[in-house]
Design a protein that fits this description.
The structure is a single chain. By secondary structure, the chain is of the alpha/beta class. It has two domains: 17-78 and 174-377, Zn peptidases (Aminopeptidase); 83-168, no CATH class. Helices cover 28% and strands 28% of the residues. It has helices spanning 2-31, 45-60, 216-235, 255-262, 296-309, 327-331, 363-377, and strands at residues 63-64, 70-79, 84-88, 91-92, 99-101, 108-113, 115-116, 121-125, 128-133, 148-153, 163-168, 171-185, 190-200, 240-247, 271-277, 287-290, 315-318, 336-341. A hairpin with a 2-residue loop joins strand 8 and strand 9 (128-133). Helix 5 crosses helix 7 (363-377).
């Protein structure tokens, strides 16, 4: 009887993880869809994503950290909402695949001859230059520069660039409205002690009217994992409160997490540990923990749990780095790890970071590792 009961429990556990995998994949597919337009600065992409996450919190029964789930803030950003036409030697280029525009560039409408500066760089006019690149990666700028710079993927363009025609529209928004989305599950014994799980939900948005950056691994996968953990903890309250924050403005310079730390909705000294999830959609080659050398005891505990259950093939140690939303918390004395997985597709900050190619190789194991790590922290 005991054996059959254990098998039944095991079946329920495995089935629960299978359902979470389906949920995670559905979240990623939704956040990377055209409707969310890269979760960025045009077509209300970031707002739609924030609303989606807040609604997910509400349906799970999570409590808001503030008066509601959103912590509003604003910052300046350079956007490209409309025209995005580039033609070289009469050949029209495809935004995102054949070329990108430097994120600080102003809008421009010009026709000019191209003068080679070297084998990879060309001058059109004093206000326009072209660079040939092996890989195109984009980012977000909070100011507008004086010069328009185009990066052209040289593998898509074999002829020597001689003449160029451009018609590009930019719009500088001095006070773009964004929001961190924050909630928690109240602890059963020590509600004033928190374990925090964070992930940024913003991405690069769109470049022009027809091209957007899906951001599957960066960071729809992190948000999906966070929401799966929120579902788990909503159904299984812990002795400590478990907090969840999805940050905006990470791609613009960790602006959302910085704003939260400067305007905390909960006392920062109540956060016993923070796990930040960014780029966690792979895992064939293991994972890396930023701040591992800063908190060696916590890193040893994480490795002990992983070695016991053989979850992740390899956990690499990395020191302090200002490369994701954990950073400002660490600067204020909050113990924090930033976790990212490795291996799989190399797409990053480009139009090829798509859900169809995201393997989620170690999602289940990472989920179990995080739950096990949090359990040990609460002992």
């Amino acid at each position: 009887m005991k054996k059959s009961g254990f098998i039944f429990f095991l079946f329920l556990t495995i089935n629960s993880f299978a359902q979470d995998s389906v949920y995670t994949r559905n979240v990623i597919n939704t956040l990377t869809s055209k409707a969310f337009w890269g979760r960025g600065y045009t077509k209300d992409g970031m707002k739609k994503a924030a609303d989606y996450i807040a609604d997910a919190y509400h349906r799970m029964g999570l409590l808001p950290m503030g008066t509601n789930y959103k912590q509003d803030f604003s910052f300046p950003v350079n956007t490209f909402p409309g025209k995005m036409m580039v033609s070289i030697n009469g050949q029209k280029l495809i935004p995102g695949k054949d070329f990108i525009i430097n994120n600080e560039s102003p809008g421009i409408k010009q026709k000019a001859n191209l003068t080679p500066l070297d084998s990879l760089n060309y001058q059109a006019t004093s206000s326009l230059t072209v660079s040939l690149k092996d890989k195109l990666t984009w980012s977000v700028a909070t100011e507008v520069g004086e010069k328009t710079i185009l990066q052209v993927n040289k593998k898509y363009f074999t002829a020597i660039p001689k003449e160029i025609s451009v018609d590009i529209e930019n719009k500088f928004v001095p006070g773009f409205q964004a929001a961190n989305v924050c909630a928690f599950v109240k602890g059963t014994r020590f509600p004033d002690s928190l374990l925090m799980i964070t992930a940024h939900y913003d991405h690069l948005g769109g470049m022009g009217a027809d091209t957007y950056f899906p951001g599957a691994n960066d960071n729809a996968a992190g948000v999906a994992t966070l929401l799966s953990l929120a579902k788990y903890y909503a159904a299984h309250p812990q002795p400590y409160s478990i907090g969840f924050i999805c940050f905006a403005g990470e791609e613009a310079g960790l602006l959302g997490s910085r704003y939260f730390v400067e305007n905390p909705l909960i006392p920062l000294n109540k956060i016993k540990f923070l796990l930040n999830l960014d780029l966690v959609g792979t895992g064939e080659a293991g994972m890396t923990v930023v701040n591992a050398s800063v908190y060696p005891k916590a890193f040893a505990l994480l490795n002990h749990i992983n070695n016991q259950h053989r979850y992740i093939s390899k956990i690499n140690s990395r020191g302090k780095a200002a490369n994701s939303d954990h950073y400002f918390f660490t600067e204020r004395g909050v113990p924090a790890f930033f976790i990212y997985t490795q291996g799989g597709p190399s797409a990053y900050h480009d139009v090829f970071d798509q859900p169809e190619t995201l393997p989620l190789t170690e999602y289940k194991d990472l989920f179990k590792l995080i739950v096990g790590f949090n359990e040990k922290l609460m002992e």
